[in-house]
Amino acid sequence: MTAQPAIRSRSGGRSTRRALRAAPDCRMLPGLTNALPLCEVMEDSQVERIDAASMDILENVGVQFRDPIAVQDWKRAGAKVDGEMVYLDRGLVRELIKTIPSDFTYHARDPQKNVRLGGRNAVFVPMTGAPFLRDLDDVRRNPMLDDLAMFHKLSHMMPALHSSAHHIVEPYDHPISQRHLRITYSSMKHSDKMFMGMTTSPKNAEDVMDMCAILFGEDFLEDHPVTTGNCNGNSPLVWDETMLGAMRAFCRRNQPVLCSPFVLGGANTPASVPATVAQLNAEALSALAYTQVIRKGAPAIYGHYLSTVSMKSGAPMAGTPEISLMNFMIGQMARHYGVPWRTSNTLGGAKTFDAQAGYESATTLSSVMHAGANYIWHSAGWNEAGMHCSVAKFIVDAEQCAMAYRMAEGPKWGDFDQAIAAVPDIGPGGHYLGHPHTQENFQSAFFMPELFDNNSIEQWAAEGKVEITERALKRARYLLGEYQEPTLDPAKDEALRDYIARREREIPAADELNQSF
Amino acid sequence: MTAQPAIRSRSGGRSTRRALRAAPDCRMLPGLTNALPLCEVMEDSQVERIDAASMDILENVGVQFRDPIAVQDWKRAGAKVDGEMVYLDRGLVRELIKTIPSDFTYHARDPQKNVRLGGRNAVFVPMTGAPFLRDLDDVRRNPMLDDLAMFHKLSHMMPALHSSAHHIVEPYDHPISQRHLRITYSSMKHSDKMFMGMTTSPKNAEDVMDMCAILFGEDFLEDHPVTTGNCNGNSPLVWDETMLGAMRAFCRRNQPVLCSPFVLGGANTPASVPATVAQLNAEALSALAYTQVIRKGAPAIYGHYLSTVSMKSGAPMAGTPEISLMNFMIGQMARHYGVPWRTSNTLGGAKTFDAQAGYESATTLSSVMHAGANYIWHSAGWNEAGMHCSVAKFIVDAEQCAMAYRMAEGPKWGDFDQAIAAVPDIGPGGHYLGHPHTQENFQSAFFMPELFDNNSIEQWAAEGKVEITERALKRARYLLGEYQEPTLDPAKDEALRDYIARREREIPAADELNQSF
Fold first, then answer.
1. Is-annotated flag, keyword Transmembrane (chains A, B) (predicted)?
2. Angstrom distance (rounded) from CA A330 to CA A335
């Protein structure tokens, strides 16, 4: 929202600032370069200990690949295989993962919106996969394609979001078997930022690749990451056919996948933070290694979905101290292997956008910044443990990401001498509001959140006692009113539509419309 | 609430756990030893640059001490003085501050609740100074002495709070001139944790010192810090008579004060993060140095109240990226000088306990943990920029502190080998809930917040759609029902009451009852 770099780069006159206020500044912030010293809670010997425990698991416990093609691939790659069980020698794992690029550039439809990933370079990506939304009236209901389009538009307009993702919400008004086509088209059409690719089946993943080839050119794909697939593991230590098939579709076209063990700490891992990380690490390594069996040198991302589980209800929790600690540790492991890594960001377990959601989301956001995550997924909208995407929360989370972005840039020293020269100008007991340095610099010096109300209670009451949910929904409506669709080459648009029409004729829709969840 | 150390130290049987659940576990967590690598955003040369700029300010711009005694003290100490303006040579400043202890132990009425401060040792202290409260029915109104007692009881019961502070809320049903006596007594009586001492005037501070002498013994005070006074500066670069007089009362009795510049970034400092830190640092140093003029070797704490200002309304903001950055930097400066430091914690600017309050509070809490703050003040209840203390937020914030405490302890490696041994036991595709290691360890392995609801929406709806405010208020009522007053030696109690009665006869109450704010 308050995209300070834009304001900084323009002249400081009052009329300019008034003009800027008139239209929302939706220019995307460049990909983040995290300048913070990272929170590394393990000594080198502890990193080695996790590594050794993970390698022991891979060698001796083994990983189940429930997929005949993967089993055959592993045999050819020299792993010990017994039925679906694959035992990976640590030498083989290390040999394989060393060809994963430590960083790469994502290419967006608008090349100005390309972003780097890996090392200190990071991106914020909205949440995905919600079977419900809380809409512009904060009503919880099943989402439709129009709702998905709305979220893609908002993703396009929020400066700190670097991607329009894919199925932010699950569109119920279209058959499941064909949904991936419409979802991909909506991501591509409503934003020119990068986007994610559906991995709901190997064939669906192929469709996504074909659509990317239409948008960017088949040859371009060969050398340029343009999208991201997510492949969840079934912890403990299982990868299934759907995910592995989708992984192959992406890797063969040289497109990166997130290798994401799905960890509910204490339920599908041991009741220990370091042991959970060791198991998760083994799982991630097994998939990362497999990406290189599929295609040596293909980009791949160390992933995870990570929660701890309430022993009262079995439900995943958010914002707990162990999630923060595990993020710090996983960051260290990924850097140890020299692979970019993904985490989950502003997760909330609250049913409404109440203070619980705020605490959970801010705690997670802060931790993933200090952990030095690269692909910062689920960065806007997630509440109710991912069961719904909230429009209000989406807007606030995205602004929080802009604030975290600012923090991660570190202190700005450029005008230190001029700023400090104001101190003798003002002297003891004065105030700085009228000083020329203040007038020139306050907007870039101090972030002013749009969605937080800092007025007095009297003023707040006079304005109708509006809490943050309502303020954010008002902002969302305003933004959608200002939305301008980025131009898409009409020939590519037509080719995409033709592709979808053809595939929808080929894919049986059946009557599965209402069987989605 | 979920004070895991207690659970860990007992046997792991189910009946034991059931019994533990029956009564709230209110045992105080030991003083925190922060094991996180700290977020140090400045290189050594930048620390030197801030130091040099601050010393230039002290030498050339000067600090105004609006207090004849302080001016005389400074003359005797060798400073250049011109009217109320004091110019401090950097050599003098360095010489003076080097006698401030880098850490010390606070002594509580219950010696089991003594806590260390300085270096890696930190404490959580509730908010203070609210002219309003949101009460057990979430109604915003003026507080009374009974409300203050309620907050002192809750402070006593929340495991992560290490202090009962002082005027958490401002009791309106007692004359201002005598209030400090009743406030101090309430802190002392309702909790046996350490507490803060009022600094509303030099004479009031003397009364607090006298009451501490009654409680602990005059001689004991000489060698043992038992309370904390706060002395706010008037930024830029002014200290007033009230604060300096109170500072003298504390320092003479060897009791620590917080030397707290009151910074509204951009309004009473330059519009620059590093320049704001340089000015704040100069201000803090001038007061820290003065504590050593008063009494060489007296404990003192590098303080600050720190906000950035909304240029729309002039109001202080909370949870902004610059507040986080300045906390990181101030932590570095305080460690550079080898002095313990104070920060402000879960500040909220929201008018209600909504998601804004959650984001703001969690962002600040996370930042002060990564900054390595020692005296972590305003750790529970603060909302509406400090205008009210919310009972609901008090309970949730205190639990958040317990969660941050757990994070700051770092990963626990003690049972790593046993935990990792569970992985082959369970194998691919299994679950860990029934494993003996899980049964034994889940409570200590993963924090389970009491105040967060992680149930399904169906269960949540069946239970009445209770949001966090209502849950927290219910918890507060429950805790207050279980409250047990810690025994106070009847002779000391009588002596304290006699002292108050005598002073209330001596101090004119006038009719200032309703003129308090």
1. no
2. 8
